[in-house]
Predict the structure.
Amino acid sequence: MIHVKWDRETLHFPVPPPETKLGKLRTDLAEYTHLPLGSFKLIHAGAVMKDDSAPLTAYKIRENSTIALIGGHSLPSAPTPATPSRPQPKVKEPATEQSTITAIRTELDRVRTTLVPDVDALVSALTSTVSSPPTSAPTPASGSAPTQSFSSTAQAPHLPPSHPTPTSYSSKPTASDHTRLSELLLQSLLRLDAMHLAGSDWPEARAERKAAVREVQGVLDRLDGAWSAR
């Protein structure tokens, strides 16, 4: 079977014959999900599957492969303020190799600071074993003065965190927690894939994007692996 992650669902399909074209799989998924054929992207191993004329073997699709189906519906857009006149659109500057590298590093830094801490917290909550019931504090002997404990944090001044506080789990994480992080990481992979590289004359930008995709995919694999092993 191959597994297709779509929104909050995971679909399961028999492994297609090796010579099956990507376009055939895309058409089958469009018919099954009732999505317009060109409204979604398919991602496998961190890469967007684009060439519908290529066989599935070119994308290393095999037994137990997992494909992410992204898109199929438009995200709600921010309300447009009612103004009598609209400003002229700003002319977009052509991308350069340095600006593309900056965009790649900005995206990767966003993943590291806003998603990786939440993934770490979820994985830790899933992998931690239930320990023995906590022991209660010893009761002071009769006639002795009760001891007092002071938290070091109570004495320190409160400082605002430099990065968003990661999610903490007082109970076992839910499927919606896993789905939220998985979707955000997949969206990051899509943004990295969409960054335009002007040919082979940008080797540094290509190396940066390849390394960023590998790192984000590694975070997603760690998240899915911990969830599967729960």
In short: The first helix runs from residue 22 to 33. The chain is about 40% helix and 10% strand. The longest strand covers residues 66-71. The radius of gyration is 24 Å.
